[in-house]
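Our collaborator T.R. sent over the components below with a one-line note: 'Predict the complex.' Nothing else. No constraints on interfaces, no templates requested, no preferences about which chain binds where. So this is a plain run: every listed entity goes in together, and whatever single assembly comes back becomes the starting point for the next discussion.
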Amino acid sequence: MAKAMTKLDAQVLPLSFTLNGRLQELDVEPHELLLDVVRERLGLTGAKRSCDVQVCGACTLLVDGRPVSACTTLAFEVRGRSVLTIEGLAEKDGKLHPLQEAFIEHGGFQCGFCTPGMILAAKALLDENPAPSEAELKHFMHGNICRCTGYKKIIESIMAAAKKMRSGS
Amino acid sequence: MLRRFRLEEPESVAEASELLARLGESAKVYAGGTELLLAMKEGLIQYERLINVKKLKGLSEVAALDGMIKIGALCTHHELEKSSLVQQKLPSLHKLEQNVANVRVRQSGTLGGNLCFAEPHADPGTLLMALGAKLVAEKSSGTREIAAEDFFVDAYETSLQADELLTEIRIPDPTDHSRSAYLKFGYLERPSVGVALAFNLNGGGLSEVKIAVGCAGPAPRRVPEAEALLNGKGREEAERNLAQAGAVAGKASQAITDLHGSQDYKEHIVGVLLKRAFQSAVS
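Returned assembly:
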């Protein structure tokens, strides 16, 4: 428990994973968090540290397509896996993902702090369930907190994107 | 911010158990990390080593075998909410798993980790008691079963020995007469009160009634005094006794006054949830 800790030498773990479609190879220590590696070492600052206790969703990243809290995920856990951040969502030519377009069209954000996590969580939902009911959407998204919009426009944005994605346009 | 620790990645339960025996309190088992890493980031606890058990084979399956539903301790909440076996055989557990925390916690958090961390506001332990679950504890020298109601000792404390790992959760296969429900209520991130009820409804009468309450106090617990008010009764008599059973269960919940509500309030909610759980179970 809280007894005096001996000084520990660094333990180096080689980490190889796919980040936004590109192979990344770096060394991490066991205690390094995915959020710090992505933000501080790889320079992708879309995911935000906010509550730090897996409640708010601002640090949401997709690992093999599923949402995780990067603030509470050890970086070594993504070895051999595929990580998507908001920076990797648009197409290579810069064309925005339908969710990104819908959030702009429908005013799905104000300050934008929660938006990367919102959009990635919504992507995970729509990949799994392309035609969610509003109740299913709310259930899936209830762990992503927005303090500006009151959620109405976020729900409208996701529903609009779902419709657009279903029609394939 | 996490302090530096070293990682051990055993390939077998025996190897993990030997590490626990050798390293003692300087090491901790790590699975999903959804509870452990929060406490470590907060600086409340620290370890020189974490023993990652996710490489252990065969602990992520759900199977119906020998009259039981066997759930590997490493099954995540997400895997359980998606399991068709859980959905068909254990609808109350299925519903519980759909509503654990949020989608990210369900993605990483494991059922075994949830039970072993013994956070007082966790859901599964309470329902597992009512479902008559047995928890399998393994170490290098042997295996034993612990009844769910004997597993939780206090807040953050279980009856696992220092070198034991929880490897499986065994739930008796329900029959056509089995009924169960788990309901929770709260207004913060974690529930203030959770109530589980299970019984057999056969020919209009209740038997094998099990009631458990959780979240209100330091650890979930069975309430035999409340069960006795419903057990062996016809459905209507049981329904009439529900208010009394709820009051007894509320008192037995060891509710404490905290941010999640006052003691009186939580005791009252136990009664409300028990009535609703009954309605849900018979419907």
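Summary for T.R.: Chain B has a mean pLDDT of 97.
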